[in-house]
Q: What sequence folds into this?
């Protein structure tokens, strides 16, 4: 299984200039190839193949207008053409229904928030004995290693984000057997109901609070945006203010991603099977709850659950968004009809069980996925039933609410 490991890199001033030159050359090659294909399409000519684009690139290096393309590694220019092929393939597959629809390839700009170049194995890059990343025509770049790579990487992508940070992203091949040995043996299953007041509600009654990273950083973001709006366009002070805004947003995104990683890893480690509801995020993002929906990041979290389940040999299930998980009693299975959002607890008219709306939905998510989850694990109260003579006793205590620390997720 191929995985991507990203590490922060710290290039020097000269190396940053070399990387900027490489970013620009890769962008120009991409735009030239895209323009050639678009011009051929407008003129009714046949589709320009990758081989023809590669020959045109080689010829362009010998012209006075494009001779500066030879000052960077030839591999990153060829990889820029591969990126264009991938963009066209994804676009055509979307039209054919093989994947979600996406727009046609567009021209890149030097003002884009993300700049990247990719080096494959034949580029001659390597990790030095001193722990630095040696890139052709760039030099030895310092890397902040946070963990050990499980195997020798085949490809490295150097990325510059909107806040001016540089990252090296390695693609490595992992051993399936070694990944399976890292996870403990378990037969537990869990259903997950995602929400806003609580980020995740599990079928065993655990409620994990929503960190709301964007909401907590709104005051700082507002001030940074105000400072940016007051700077003159085209000035150096505006560039500095823009970087401050990008860094503030980057901190929010990094904290959210770390939260998703920790929670998804814990759920995959503790359960053999995980079921989650397929939410209509695009539809919810058009409502008055749009900011909270985007702040939660449900899609990124479920994507992490899916690939980690595949990596560690766990079962992952998506339940259809039209499944009436909030309308069905998890005790007796009777559908009680839709309920407004302000109803957080309801009583089943058939069996009399008093159900927590979110936990009941989490149990139904697990059941809809075919997992053997019993409703007695949810926090429910059965209806009042007359006790038989001689068997009356004390009422059983309700299980206490598990707090964040008991869930094993640090940070709150």
A:
């Amino acid at each position: 299984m191929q995985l991507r490991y990203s590490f922060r890199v710290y290039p020097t001033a000269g190396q940053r200039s070399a990387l900027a030159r490489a970013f620009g050359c890769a962008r120009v090659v991409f735009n030239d190839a895209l323009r050639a294909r678009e011009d051929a399409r407008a003129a009714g000519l046949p589709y320009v193949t990758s081989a023809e684009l590669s020959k045109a690139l080689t010829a362009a290096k010998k012209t006075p207008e494009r001779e500066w393309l030879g000052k960077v590694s030839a591999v990153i220019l060829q990889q820029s053409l591969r990126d264009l092929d991938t963009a066209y393939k994804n676009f055509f597959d979307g039209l054919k229904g093989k994947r979600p629809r996406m727009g046609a390839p567009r021209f890149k700009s030097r003002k884009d928030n993300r700049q990247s170049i990719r080096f494959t194995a034949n580029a001659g890059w390597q990790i030095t004995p001193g722990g630095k990343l040696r890139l052709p025509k760039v030099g030895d770049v310092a890397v902040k290693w946070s963990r050990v790579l499980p195997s020798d990487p085949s490809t490295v992508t150097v990325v510059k984000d909107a806040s001016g940070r540089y990252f090296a992203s390695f693609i490595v091949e992992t051993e399936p057997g070694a990944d399976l040995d890292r996870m403990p043996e378990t037969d537990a299953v869990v259903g997950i109901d995602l929400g806003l007041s609580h980020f995740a509600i599990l079928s065993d009654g655990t409620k994990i609070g929503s960190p709301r990273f964007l909401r907590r950083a709104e005051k700082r973001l507002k001030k940074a945006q105000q400072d940016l709006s007051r700077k003159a366009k085209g000035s150096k002070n505006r560039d500095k203010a823009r970087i401050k805004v990008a860094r503030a947003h980057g901190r929010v995104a990094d904290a959210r991603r770390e939260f998703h990683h920790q929670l998804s890893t814990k759920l995959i480690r503790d359960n053999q099977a995980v079921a989650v509801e397929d939410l209509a995020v695009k539809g919810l993002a058009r409502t008055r709850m749009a900011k909270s929906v985007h702040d939660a990041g449900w899609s990124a979290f479920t994507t992490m659950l899916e690939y980690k389940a595949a990596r560690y040999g766990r079962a992952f299930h998506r339940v259809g968004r039209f499944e009436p998980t909030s309308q069905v009693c998890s005790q007796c299975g009777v559908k009680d009809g839709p309920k407004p959002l302000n109803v957080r607890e309801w009583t089943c008219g058939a069996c009399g069980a008093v159900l927590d709306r979110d936990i009941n939905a989490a149990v139904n998510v697990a059941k809809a996925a075919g997992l053997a989850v019993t409703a007695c694990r949810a926090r429910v109260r059965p209806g009042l039933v007359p006790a038989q003579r001689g068997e009356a006793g004390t009422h059983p205590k309700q299980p206490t609410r598990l707090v964040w620390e008991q869930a094993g997720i640090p940070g709150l």
Residues 375-412 have pLDDT under 50 and may be disordered. The radius of gyration is 27 Å. Residues 21 and 72 are 8 Å apart (CA to CA).
